């Protein structure tokens, strides 16, 4: 997308505004499938928690993607977007047996990540095939909050508890059709990923009727110029060879599954904001914008970096700015960042705003959530309207008049 396209969309739909480039999503999907083209049976399940807009789900469905979901609400959204139940995986954490049973009744593939639920589900529903999520005890990921395969993680069943898993499977006679792992996000060292994959292969040998192995995802994307990213082509070459060899040892061609979220949509996203005020202090120049961590919380929550461009003045001389939001507490997008000279009314574009950005937004300070637009075939398509005051009131119930009058 060009800066002029983004400016036109900001003018047309207002700001703040999320924009997603359909072509970039498609190219990332094709890049992943090409990297693993030597695997006979490859399946990509989009991790929809990254960006769950129904239009995005439909776009990926048309490309052949399945879905990875973590809540019954995501399952319902996937079904609403037109996915067949068998194309949806349900990988929750810490949910009730009742929620898992309700999803299983829809025909969705269940992935269980703790011994208690595994035993309860297997006892009640031994004929419903399930996948087991293991914890390989491998530390991977760019932040403690997104590293989920280490020994202190709440996710998965420890590889050291495989004897317990086998005992439950034997006692309940339940059907195990897949083994799953996910080490964490922002993986840089593919050798760490391959090491964890070996643990998955070793675990799989204990189960004789598997149909697939799910390797999760967590591939890192570049957040700034010359940033490091996961070498997906090198990983594809090495893991494909090892996976095919394992299938030969196992005696059956299994399906290799990935569940990318950020990898598919992060770089496609642009978050557009307008500069309300440029404020010079004794030590800092603040650019205050018409948004805050209610719309984009990742910099405050994870310390994530989003490249910021002044698309209203792309050739301007760079100066140092701290870009801050309008939320009534510390609300910083970037500290002392080199950005083309900013004046009030300019439009700034935050890059890599496709994953875990809108999906983590809120109505904090009673602010409205912004609109979302899909840029496709040279035009902007509105895929979510900006909220209004009526949306804030929609589910609120005021006090009955007779009680309110006594307060």
Biggest sheet architecture: 9 strands, mixed
C-alpha end-to-end distance: 55 Å
The CATH homologous superfamily of the largest domain corresponds to: Alanine racemase
Structural class: alpha/beta
Quickly count the domains: 2
Which regions contain 5 or more consecutive residues with pLDDT less than 50?
A: 140-150
Strand content: 15-25%
Per the principal axes of the C-alpha atoms, what is the gross shape? globular
Query: Quick one: how many beta strands?
Result: 18
Task: Please give the CATH architecture of the largest domain.
Answer: Alpha-Beta Barrel
Question: What is the tally of helical segments?
Answer: 13
Provide the gyration radius in Å. Answer: 23 Å
Mean pLDDT: 93
The CATH class name of the largest domain reads: Alpha Beta
Q: How much helix is in the residues?
A: 25-40%
What fold name stands as the CATH topology of the largest domain? TIM Barrel
What does this structure look like?
- By secondary structure, the protein is α/β, with parallel strands linked by helices.
- It has two domains: 36-262, TIM Barrel (Alpha-Beta Barrel); 269-393, Lyase, Ornithine Decarboxylase, Chain A, domain 1.
- It contains 13 helices and 18 strands.
- It has helices at residues 3-13, 22-35, 54-63, 72-80, 97-104, 115-124, 162-172, 190-204, 232-250, 262-265, 298-302, 389-393, 401-404; strands at 17-21, 42-47, 66-69, 88-90, 109-112, 130-135, 157-158, 176-180, 212-214, 255-258, 269-280, 285-289, 308-310, 318-324, 332-340, 347-350, 371-376, 379-384.
- The strands form two sheets. Strands 1, 11, 12, 13, 14, 15, 16, 17 and 18 form a nine-stranded mixed beta sheet that branches. The protein has an eight-stranded parallel beta barrel with strand order 2-3-4-5-6-8-9-10, surrounded by five helices.
- The radius of gyration is 23 Å and the shape is globular.
- This is Diaminopimelate decarboxylase.
- It catalyses: meso-2,6-diaminopimelate + H(+) = L-lysine + CO2.
- Specifically catalyzes the decarboxylation of meso-diaminopimelate (meso-DAP) to L-lysine.
- The modification N6-(pyridoxal phosphate)lysine is found at residue 49.
């Amino acid at each position: 997308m060009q800066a002029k396209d983004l400016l036109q969309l900001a003018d047309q739909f207002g700001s703040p505004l999320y924009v997603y480039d359909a072509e970039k999503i498609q190219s990332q999907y094709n890049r992943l499938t090409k990297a693993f083209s030597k695997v006979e049976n490859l399946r990509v399940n989009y991790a929809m928690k990254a960006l769950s807009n129904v239009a995005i789900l439909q776009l990926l469905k048309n490309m052949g993607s399945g879905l990875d979901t973590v809540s019954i609400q995501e399952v319902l959204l996937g079904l609403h977007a037109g996915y067949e139940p068998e194309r949806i995986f349900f990988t929750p954490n810490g949910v009730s047996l009742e929620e898992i049973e309700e999803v299983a009744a829809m025909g969705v593939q269940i992935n269980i990540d703790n011994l208690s639920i595994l035993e309860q589900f297997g006892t009640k529903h031994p004929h419903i095939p399930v996948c087991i999520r293991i914890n390989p005890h491998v530390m991977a990921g760019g932040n403690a909050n997104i590293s989920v395969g280490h020994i202190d993680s709440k996710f998965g069943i420890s590889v050291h508890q495989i004897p317990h898993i086998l005992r439950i499977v034997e006692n309940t006679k339940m059907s195990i059709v897949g083994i799953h792992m996910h080490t964490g996000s922002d993986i840089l060292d593919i050798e760490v990923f391959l090491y964890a994959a070996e643990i998955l292969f070793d675990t799989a040998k204990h189960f004789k009727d598997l149909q697939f192995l799910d390797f999760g995802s967590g591939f890192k994307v570049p957040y700034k110029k010359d940033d490091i990213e996961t070498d997906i082509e090198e990983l594809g070459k090495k893991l494909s060879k090892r996976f095919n060899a394992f299938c030969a040892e196992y005696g059956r061609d299994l399906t290799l599954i990935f569940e990318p979220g950020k990898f598919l949509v992060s770089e496609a996203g642009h978050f557009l904001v307008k500069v309300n005020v440029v404020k010079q202090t004794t030590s800092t120049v603040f650019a205050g914008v018409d948004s805050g961590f209610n719309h984009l919380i990742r910099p405050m929550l994870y310390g994530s970096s989003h490249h910021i461009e002044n698309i209203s003045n792309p050739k301007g001389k760079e100066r140092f700015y701290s870009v801050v939001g309008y939320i009534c507490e510390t609300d910083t997008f970037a500290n002392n960042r080199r950005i083309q000279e900013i004046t009030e009314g300019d439009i700034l574009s935050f890059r890599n705003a496709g994953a875990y950005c809108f999906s983590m937004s809120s109505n904090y300070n009673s602010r409205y959530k912004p609109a979302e637009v899909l840029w496709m075939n040279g035009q902007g398509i509105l895929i979510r309207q900006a909220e209004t005051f009526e949306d804030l009131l929609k589910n609120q119930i005021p006090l009955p008049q007779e009680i309110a009058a006594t307060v």
